[in-house]
Please model this.
Amino acid sequence: MPEKVIKDTDNNMKKAVEAFKGELSKIRTGKASPTLLDGIFVEYYSVKTPLNQVSTISTPEPRLIVIQPWDKSVLGEIEKEILKANIGLTPSNDGNVIRLAVPPLTEERRHEIVKTLKKLAEDSRVSIRQIRREAIDRLKALKKDGKLPEDDEERLEREMQKATDKEIAEIDQLLEKKEKEILEL
Model:
């Protein structure tokens, strides 16, 4: 039973870190990246479909994203959805492809992004600590029910603290890397 608590805790912490990585990939750094368009869905034959499933998305230049739909009739819909997504990019439609020029970031905007990054990182750290807290509560309940000796409870709590520290360190490392990337552009 305690093994399940440890395994669940470990999985949940890893999911929290993965969620943080996902959030980082959506943040615009001034470089063109197809991940900026993740989360954009277009109406395609009456079905909301991810943009990357109705087109080829490429970055031929560091500050340019090119979207080439497989069906040209969906160009207007793609353009509309990009504007609606409010990602700070204005589509240019030439009838065959849509081009998105990624403008360079201003110094002020860079600092705003870093501030947002730090908040996301702190939210992730809080989430990991909450996962640890819930696991410790589960262990205490097991001990109370007589299913876990006191020595094991203390050892498992220390293990959980180590796992927590490891995941938080990974978040800090990811934050530092992204922050450096944004401020150096």
User: Anything to note?
Assistant: The two ends are 50 Å apart (CA to CA). The beta strands are 41-44, 47-50, 55-61, 64-69, 91-93, 98-101. The chain has four helices and six strands. The longest helix spans residues 107-144.
